[in-house]
C-alpha cells in the first residue's frame, strides 16, 4: 500500500524512475494503485479547498 | 570565432535594446497602461514583475542553450553523451517551474481578492450593452441614458479627415466623481458585449440574463476611453466607451443638469411640435440609430435593409400606421429591432416624421410625441 502511495505521488509530480516503474508493473493486482489514486485525488481536492479558504480569509 | 560571437551578441543587443526599452516605456503604446486607479497600478506592477521573471527565464534558458551549442560543437570534437533518463534532473526541472508559479501566484491572489471586493460602494451604476451602444443607469440618482458613437459618419466614410478620438468618442459620456468607490453591474440587452476601459483596468463581459460586477475608485480627473471587447455584430467597433472623471462638485452639478434635462424632455413630450422641429431632431436621431443599416440617404442595403427613400410605407398615408408600428415594435423575422423601449417618445416621433419627409418622401406628415405615447401606453 505504501508502495502504491509512493507511485501515485510520483505520478502527481510527473516524474518516476525506471526502477520504480518496473517494480510497480510486477505487482499482481492494480487495485492498490487505483484506490491510492482515488484517495490522493480526494486529498488533493481537500488541500486546494483549504488553501483557497485560507487565502480568502487572510 | 569567439570574437564573431561577441560581435553578433553586441549587434543583437544594439538592435533590440532600444526597441525593448522603448516598448517597456508605457507612453510608447506598446505596453499596457498603468492606469489611474490603485488597482490598475497594482495590475501593472504585477504585469511588469511577471514580464521580468519571463525575461530572466529566457536569458538563463537560451543562454545555456546557445553556450552549449557553441562550446560543445562537433567541429571542436565534442562527443554526444548517450544516456536514458536522469530522475534527479527531471525532479529539478519540474520543481523549479512549480516554485516560480507559486511565487507568482502569491501577489496575484492578493490583487485578485481586492478586484473582487465590491463592498461599500457609494455609487451603483448598471451598464447594459446594446447592439451597438451602451446604456448607463445611475441606480441611486434616478438618471439613465444611452451613450452612442460620437464620431460623425462622414469621418467613417472617409469624406472628412479623422479626428483625434476617431471611434473613441461618444455623445453622452459616463460621468463619475474621483475618489469615490463606484460599483458597476454589467448586463446585456441582446448579445454578449464586453465593457473594457484599460485605464481603469476593467474588462467585463456583459451577458444577457447575467449580472457581472466590478468596481473602481478613480484617482485623477480626466477622460478615459475604451471599447467593446467582445465581437457583437456589424457595428462592434462603433460602440466606444468614454468615462469622464470629475471632482465631486462638478459631478453633483452634472447630476442636477441631467435631472433638469430629463424633466424638460418629459414636459416637451406633452406639447404639439412643429414639422420643422420634428424634422430637425429626427435627422440627428436617424444618423445615430438608423443610418448604419438604412444609410444616410435612405437608400438602405436591399434586400437585408430595405430602402426608406421612395418606400410606399413612408410615402403614402396608408403606410403611416405600418411605419410607426415597425419603428416602435420592430419587424419580427427581420433584423429591424423595436425602438419603443430604447428611444424617448420625442425621439421616436421625430425620427418617424423625418423618415416620412426626408429624401423626397415629402408626405408633410408630422407624427406627434403624444401620439407615440398613446400607442406605447396601450
UniProtKB/TrEMBL annotation, chain A:
Regions that span the bilayer: 33-56
Keywords: Membrane, Transmembrane, Transmembrane helix
InterPro entries from the UniProt entry: DUF2970 (IPR021344)
One Pfam family cited in the UniProt record for this chain: DUF2970
Name of the protein described by the UniProt record: DUF2970 domain-containing protein
Source organism per UniProt: Marinospirillum alkaliphilum DSM 21637
TrEMBL record, chain B:
Textual note on the cofactor: Binds a copper A center.
Annotated ranges, domain Cytochrome c: 277-359
Cofactor requirements of the protein: Cu cation
Major localisation: membrane
The reaction(s) this protein catalyses: 4 Fe(II)-[cytochrome c] + O2 + 8 H(+)(in) = 4 Fe(III)-[cytochrome c] + 2 H2O + 4 H(+)(out)
PROSITE patterns in the cross-refs: COX2, COX2_CUA, COX2_TM, CYTC
Biological process according to GO: ATP synthesis coupled electron transport
Compartment list: Cell membrane; Membrane
Keywords for this protein: Copper, Electron transport, Heme, Iron, Membrane, Metal-binding, Respiratory chain, Signal, Translocase, Transmembrane, Transmembrane helix, Transport
Record-annotated Cytochrome oxidase subunit II transmembrane region profile domain positions: 24-119
SUPFAM superfamilies: Cupredoxins (SSF49503), Cytochrome c (SSF46626), Cytochrome c oxidase subunit II-like, transmembrane region (SSF81464)
UniProt domain Cytochrome oxidase subunit II copper A binding: residue ranges: 120-257
One Gene Ontology term, aspect cellular component: plasma membrane
Matching Pfam families: COX2, COX2_TM, Cytochrome_CBB3
Region forming the signal peptide: 1-21
TM region positions: 47-70, 91-110
Membrane topology classification: Multi-pass membrane protein
Recorded superkingdom: Bacteria
EC code(s) of this entry: 7.1.1.9
Entry GO MF terms: copper ion binding; cytochrome-c oxidase activity; heme binding; oxidoreductase activity
Function field: Subunits I and II form the functional core of the enzyme complex. Electrons originating in cytochrome c are transferred via heme a and Cu(A) to the binuclear center formed by heme a3 and Cu(B).
Family: Belongs to the cytochrome c oxidase subunit 2 family.
Protein name according to UniProt: Cytochrome c oxidase subunit 2
Organism (species): Marinospirillum alkaliphilum DSM 21637
Amino acid at each position: 500500500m505504501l508502495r502504491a502511495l509512493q507511485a501515485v505521488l510520483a505520478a502527481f509530480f510527473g516524474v518516476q524512475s525506471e526502477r520504480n516503474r518496473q517494480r510497480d508493473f510486477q505487482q499482481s493486482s492494480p487495485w492498490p494503485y487505483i484506490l491510492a489514486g482515488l484517495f490522493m485525488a480526494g486529498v488533493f481536492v481537500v488541500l486546494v479547498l483549504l488553501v483557497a479558504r485560507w487565502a480568502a480569509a487572510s | 570565432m569567439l570574437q564573431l560571437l561577441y560581435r553578433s551578441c553586441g549587434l543583437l543587443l544594439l538592435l533590440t535594446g532600444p526597441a525593448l526599452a522603448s516598448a517597456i516605456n508605457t507612453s510608447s503604446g506598446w505596453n499596457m497602461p498603468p492606469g489611474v486607479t490603485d488597482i490598475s497600478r497594482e495590475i501593472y506592477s504585477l504585469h511588469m514583475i511577471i514580464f521580468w521573471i519571463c525575461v530572466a527565464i529566457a536569458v538563463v534558458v537560451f543562454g545555456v542553450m546557445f553556450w552549449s551549442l557553441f562550446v560543445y560543437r562537433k567541429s571542436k570534437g565534442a562527443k554526444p553523451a548517450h544516456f536514458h533518463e536522469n530522475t534527479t534532473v527531471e525532479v529539478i526541472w519540474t520543481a523549479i517551474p512549480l516554485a516560480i508559479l507559486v511565487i507568482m501566484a502569491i501577489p496575484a491572489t492578493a490583487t485578485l481578492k481586492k478586484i473582487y471586493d465590491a463592498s461599500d460602494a457609494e455609487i451603483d451604476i448598471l451598464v447594459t450593452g446594446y447592439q451597438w451602444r451602451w446604456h448607463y443607469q445611475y441606480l441611486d440618482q434616478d438618471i439613465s441614458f444611452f451613450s452612442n458613437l460620437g464620431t460623425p459618419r462622414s469621418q467613417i466614410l472617409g469624406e472628412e479627415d479623422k479626428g483625434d478620438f476617431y471611434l473613441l468618442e461618444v455623445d453622452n459620456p459616463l460621468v463619475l466623481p474621483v475618489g469615490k468607490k463606484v460599483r458597476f453591474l454589467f448586463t446585456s440587452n441582446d448579445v454578449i458585449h464586453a465593457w473594457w476601459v484599460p485605464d481603469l483596468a476593467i474588462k467585463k463581459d456583459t451577458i444577457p440574463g447575467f449580472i457581472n460586477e466590478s468596481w473602481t475608485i478613480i484617482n485623477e480627473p480626466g477622460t478615459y476611453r475604451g471599447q467593446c471587447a467582445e465581437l457583437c455584430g456589424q457595428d462592434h467597433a462603433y460602440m466606444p466607451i468614454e468615462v469622464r472623471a470629475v471632482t465631486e462638485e462638478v459631478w453633483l452639478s452634472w447630476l442636477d443638469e441631467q435631472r433638469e434635462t430629463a424633466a424638460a424632455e418629459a414636459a416637451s413630450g406633452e406639447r404639439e411640435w412643429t414639422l420643422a422641429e420634428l424634422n430637425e431632431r429626427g435627422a440627428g436621431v436617424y444618423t445615430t440609430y438608423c443610418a448604419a443599416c438604412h444609410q444616410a440617404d435612405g437608400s438602405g442595403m436591399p434586400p437585408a435593409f430595405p430602402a426608406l427613400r421612395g418606400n410606399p410605407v413612408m410615402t403614402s398615408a396608408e403606410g403611416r400606421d405600418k411605419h410607426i408600428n415597425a419603428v416602435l415594435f420592430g419587424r419580427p423575422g427581420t433584423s429591424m429591432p423595436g425602438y419603443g423601449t430604447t428611444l424617448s417618445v420625442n425621439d421616436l416621433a421625430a425620427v418617424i416624421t423625418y423618415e416620412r419627409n426626408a429624401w423626397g418622401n415629402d408626405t408633410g406628415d408630422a407624427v406627434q410625441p403624444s401620439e407615440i405615447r398613446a400607442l406605447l401606453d396601450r
